[in-house]
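User: Modeling request: complex.
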Amino acid sequence: MRVARNRQALYPYLLIAPALLFVILVVLFPVLRALLMSFQNYDLRRPGAIGFIGLTNYAAVAGDPLFRAALVRTLIWVLFGVGLQFVVGFILALLLHQHFAGRGIVRSVSLIPWVTPGVLIGLMWRWIYDGNFGVLNDLLVRLGIIRDFIPFLARKGTAFPSVIATIVWQGIPFFSIMLLAGLQGIPSSLYEAADIDGARPRQKLFYITIPSLRNTIFVTTLLRIIWVANSVDVIYSMTEGGPAYATQTLSVYIFNKASSMNLGYASTMAVFLMLLLSFVAVPYLRSMFRKG
Amino acid sequence: MKKIVCILTLAALVLGGLSAGGSREAAPAKGVTITHWYWADNSAYSALMQEMVKDFNATNGKGITVAAEEYPWSGGKYSENLFTAVMGGGGPDTSSWKLTATPLFTANKLLARLDPFLDKWDRKSGIDPNLFAIMKAAGKSENTFVMPWNTQVLYVYYRPSMFKAAGIGVPKTYEEFLNAIKVLTRDTDGDGKIDVYGFGMRGAQGGQEPWGSFIHGRGGSLKDLTSAASVQGMQDFIDIFKNGFVPPSAPSDGFSQIIANFKSGKTAMTVHHTGSAIGMVETFGDDVSAFPFPAGKGQWTSMGDTENVIFESCKNKEAAFQWLAYLAAGKGQATWCEKTMNVPVYSEVQKLPVFQNNRFMKASMDSVSYAGIFPILDTTTEWISVTWPNTVARALFGELTARQAMEILQKDLYR
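Assistant: Request completed. Predicted assembly structure:
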């Protein structure tokens, strides 16, 4: 009787074992490997010198001005990138929630930036911003807003805002679609009751819509923060982190170092980024478990 | 009797197997497939490589089938992706190559020695021994790991009509070249805006090659970037940007941008090799020509290189070498170099009229005597892809003086 009960208790663990094994191999092992490499002089260009060096990489990263600049840039990248994506995405979601002719087509078309690969987006926008033939410059000159073409990606002052604008363009559909799904789940009876009480549109937005979307906003924003902080493709295909490191975020810096085969140093920076993102990931995971 | 027959049969099988193994050493096994990776600068070159592969497969007569897979060059990312693939136990049998990648691969023992094959190759003497010496030096070894294929010597493209309009001739000295950059920068329609810039500066990855010519023009060198002469060369580079003689987009301009700027008439001169000659002639006809980068106190131009290698993991190295030999001195050499206008490495192909009578090839040949390569160090790849473009951009923006920039460049290259 007791053996049978034990077997029954083990049964769920048996079922999740393959998935757990897969996660250990694909996620946990590389994470632990990267952690290990962060304590090593692991530069494949000099394989003879690979070995443990304790906290040397951590001290070097802490004293690296490029790392500090990339860290600050990452915070700006996330703040403006995700913030603007959310604001514009929310407005778009409210518009797409309205009834109008061709709504289905507009909803589909609005997804294009999200389904386009990041590298393609980067290449496309690189030419849009081009300082000699770019369509944006041409448009601005024709509208009389500027007199001379601006080399957007070749100036320190404009390169970073330009790549932020691109990531905003890419991410708007994610917020708009997720929030639209949330909007469709709000019972219309709430708005009808508000109408009877004489509520104004602004009051309905702040007292019904936003509170009802709180969980959706929380989860989508946290997810997007993690993705944007880790994103390399758009920046890399537009500027490769330049000019003069003006667009080098932490993830691009890590990518550059890893591409140069200095995996120890790259892993150390990746550990820093992981710790930074854990401030976002932990609340996200807690909310997931609470739901569970 | 049965036992004797069995033993004899077994012995025959074993001996037969051994001799087949021996012959495998001497000649490629029939029905061998070689996977080859390469990059192509444009779709025409992609098609050309596939045509050559078809030709090799049909004519090699040894049952070798090459399967060529194309990957993007991406400013050098090709070599990094290749390293990741081979280091991870995958990747191709052979690959197109750039010398700068050699130290990383040889340090990790990923390349096959070519000497055993080269020693018995009857066309080896048709390739300049200096080229093999450069290949060996890149691998920091007495062994040869890299098979020459073609070279690209950088020279200056210019528009004769623009020179005529500006009233100047082809510069003969470095000083005249700097002056030409200034004089050719013009407002051609009188609207107060610059329409033509004297020079198409490449500030993104790859720009270190023409930049090297400026450094040597003042008598500097790549060995000592902090010498007064090298710093002065850097100052010239900064000055032509600050004075507005190059497009303002220069700090982020890569290959596509400098070629587009030149082809659109936005720049009067730019530096590249014969790889873009066909496109230039298609655009301008006779109104485009070339001259070697002029001499100042020193003279240097970058010799680009493209080679091929066999990986240690390749199971049919003899067959792989047949493919490399086809590219270096066989029909593949003539076909590729003629259609892409790269400089051939095999002497018999160099003598063909198509290479002797071409103005761009002439500029390349005239530049060969002072052409050189960047120091092949294990730091070179990172220096080219990250340190150089960002440090030079900082100098162009005025964040660093020429000396400060050169000190960073020296330190990072020779670290």
